[in-house]
Specification:
Pemi-like Protein 1, Chain: D; 3 domains; two-stranded antiparallel sheet; alpha+beta
Length: 287
């Protein structure tokens, strides 16, 4: 937290006690929940608020995953991607019942991932620590991702397949970082985060599908610009514009049938995220 801190109003509780609220983001980061105890330490003319449980922060930043069913099918890279995007710095993967060769194979895959700092063996689990990432501005990252995706569309029109895939990878990394940074600041709805993670891949498919149809591609670019620009700037109006453009694209794609399936998927993604962004603005207008 900055030296300036977060301003809180002192309120009265009962006849003689004074109370203040704790910043939600701070409490969430340190794993502090209702009923937990904290210490208030006098430090000269300041009061320091310290969690009594020294492991609370580590638990708040840890996700535990059973390596069976969907997790095993998804694989190590997807597990780490989900943990990374949702802001966890530590992943415990339960491997009880897994054969030793499979455990070693999973350990090797985890160790080779560029997002991993270390992998340790526990009694019935692999303990993965993810690399720390610098604090970033999610708005800046969203704008950068938008620019890369627009370049990706232009590369598809030029038939530059290698550039499309390279830009797709870059956009995915930027989007993943934006989602992670946004989770810290609680700037995006969790469902919107998951949808945005898949956006670069769908845009790449649509760009190649429509590379001979410049009019539709311009509308795609317009919808992306309004969506990501609206999210970055907190503009519900721009998000609504993105939803309107996406609805038009969807209607055209549905009229053409199965061949335009990728465009339908993209339009649905844009509309989903856009409406998530619009609703809070509508609610605020009514208060």
């Amino acid at each position: 937290m900055s030296e300036a801190g977060t301003v809180r109003k002192v309120q009265r509780l009962g006849g003689s006690s004074l109370i203040i609220t704790l910043p939600k983001q701070w409490a969430k980061k340190l794993g502090i929940k209702v009923g937990d105890e904290i210490q208030v330490v006098e430090d000269g003319d300041r009061l320091l608020i310290v969690p009594r449980d020294p492991y609370a922060e580590e638990r708040a930043n840890t996700i535990t995953i059973r390596y069976n069913g969907a997790a095993r099918s998804a694989g190590a890279s997807t597990i780490l991607g989900c943990a990374f995007a949702h802001g966890y710095s530590r992943v415990e993967i339960l491997v009880k019942g897994l054969q030793e060769p499979d455990v070693r194979r999973l350990e090797a895959e985890l160790s080779a991932d560029p997002r991993v700092a270390s992998v340790e063996r526990g009694f019935d689990r692999l303990i993965v620590r993810l690399l720390e990432t610098p604090e970033s501005d999610p708005s800046k990252l969203l704008r950068e991702a938008m620019g890369v995706m627009l370049d990706m569309v232009d590369a598809a029109v030029r038939g530059e397949e290698a550039d499309v895939r390279r830009l797709e990878s870059t956009a995915s990394e930027l989007m993943e970082s934006a989602i992670r940074a946004s989770r810290r600041s609680e700037g995006l709805d969790p469902l919107a985060q998951g949808v945005l993670a898949s956006l670069p891949h769908v845009v790449a498919d649509v760009a190649q599908l429509l590379r001979s149809r410049p009019e539709e591609l311009e509308k795609v670019k317009g919808a992306l610009s309004e969506l990501l620009g609206g999210l970055a700037g907190g503009s519900g109006r721009r998000a609504l514009t993105a939803a309107t453009i996406a609805a038009e694209l969807r209607e055209r794609a549905m009229a053409e049938g199965a061949s335009m399936g990728a465009l339908v998927v993209l339009a649905d993604l844009i509309m989903n995220v856009a409406l998530k962004a619009v609703c809070p603005s509508l609610m605020e207008d009514q208060e």
